Structure to design on (124 residues):
């Protein structure tokens, strides 16, 4: 994501942006010696390739790196893990988990507020 370029560079990361569907572009990204290759897009956003093809090519270029991928579905997650991805994220699951925790927190806050109102001393 180009929006994070400055922040990543300020933290000492080497950052590249390229056409992920173009095998030649992948070769010129300078990832041959990278320890971590992070792909932040899933099949929904990729044009001209898939995360599976992309991971396969990335592993050819740098088999020793930790490849982190994004999947749309649990079946994609499993396929990418079997292909050697070090870690696979499913954004929909992360969003669901975050929303669940937020809703639980809101319900707890409302319950505490309701209990405090119930036990408040009458004024008068």
């Amino acid at each position: 994501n180009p929006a994070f370029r400055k922040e990543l560079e300020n933290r000492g990361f080497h950052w590249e942006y390229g056409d992920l569907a173009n095998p030649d572009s992948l070769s010129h990204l300078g990832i041959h010696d990278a320890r971590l290759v992070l792909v932040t897009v899933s099949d929904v956003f990729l044009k001209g390739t898939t995360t599976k093809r992309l991971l396969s090519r990335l592993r050819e270029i740098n088999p020793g790196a930790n490849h982190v991928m994004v999947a749309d579905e649990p079946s994609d997650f499993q396929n990418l893990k079997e292909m050697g991805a070090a870690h696979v994220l499913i954004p929909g699951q992360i969003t669901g988990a975050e929303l669940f925790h937020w809703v639980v927190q809101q319900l707890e806050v409302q319950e505490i507020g309701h209990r405090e109102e119930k036990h408040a001393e009458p004024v008068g």
